[in-house]
């Protein structure tokens, strides 16, 4: 097990000469001291500012801007998609008057097309739709109705789509949308999944009508994983909207299913587009579903893990009862890729913030250059997006 993890780390070193040149360097050195933490948008404190999820970075690929959802309502369900210049602090509203499912993933806003565009989904007049905004012109295009956005990749034009999990209608399969041309193609079907894994499907999904839910594209766009949803009620803002289960991995390049797990935790792709980091200190090989555990790390609770762009580090959030804190206290933890050592970057009360039925979690994620971490903090009345950065240079209020 440890040998396989070591081989994975060495493979990444081979891809990065700077890392290979210093094999004995401490990958956590820059995060052990001198980390600066500040609120991304400190001027207007009478609103929530929330980045969408740990599967996508709110910082643009060129490092110049930060994307977030802002809401002045207590629950955080109504607001705007905003972008902020990291240096000047100038903010711009890309889309107004949006209704979202919850304060947990808000509008699923994300960078696409190399940072030229932003995609998100929202409810408008009862219609759930996926919208793309061009950053240069501000032009807004609704590209599909009755569907929601999964997670694409910031340097690509493709966006995975799925039907609302509480009422998918005719959209039970997985579509890929080209945000430039508007072309949409069905790439994975529920019927094909039933045929590929009949026993798994009967055990995990059962006889009820189900739909593909929450697809996430690999960095190289050649693979996708997703879970399944069975509708239970017609209220999207409810814990009983649907039952969601399983993790299925599919090769878009080879047009075949790779593996299926019974449970979905909080998975994210690693930069190699092959391995999947999962809660519980697990690493899955998407070739076959084989799993390794990072046995030297402590047990995290509620964790949402992801890996740095160079593959050397992993970050997660966790409640801190195992670290001398209370259950309402959360921390952001960075460890080396092998899980041999870790450092707690920040710790904070997280039981307040947006009053949404589904609470906002920190969801930490690395910046494209690996020098910053973005995460949500709900220690006060308003949930706020914060950034922790190494190197001593920052903009905004510092604590």
**How many structurally independent domains?**
1
Largest sheet: 4 strands, antiparallel
Strand content: 35-45%
| CATH topology descriptor | Methylamine Dehydrogenase, Chain H
Shape: globular
Q: What is the topology, as strand order, of the major beta sheet?
A: 1-28-27-26
Q: How many angstroms separate the termini?
A: 41 Å
Description:
The protein is mainly beta and 399 residues long. It has one domain: YVTN repeat-like/Quinoprotein amine dehydrogenase (Methylamine Dehydrogenase, Chain H, 7 Propeller), CATH 2.130.10.10. Helices cover 8% and strands 39% of the residues. It has helices at residues 2-15, 17-21, 190-196, 198-204; strands at residues 36-39, 48-50, 65-71, 78-85, 91-99, 110-112, 117-124, 127-134, 140-145, 148-149, 158-162, 174-178, 184-188, 211-217, 223-231, 242-251, 256-261, 268-269, 275-278, 282-285, 291-293, 306-307, 313-319, 329-336, 342-349, 365-366, 372-377, 384-389. Strands 1-28-27-26 form a four-stranded antiparallel sheet, with no helix packed on it. Strands 2-3-4-5 form a four-stranded antiparallel sheet, with no helix packed on it. The longest helix is centred in the first third of the chain and has 14 residues, at 2-15. It is globular. The model is unreliable at 12-23 and 393-399 (pLDDT under 50).
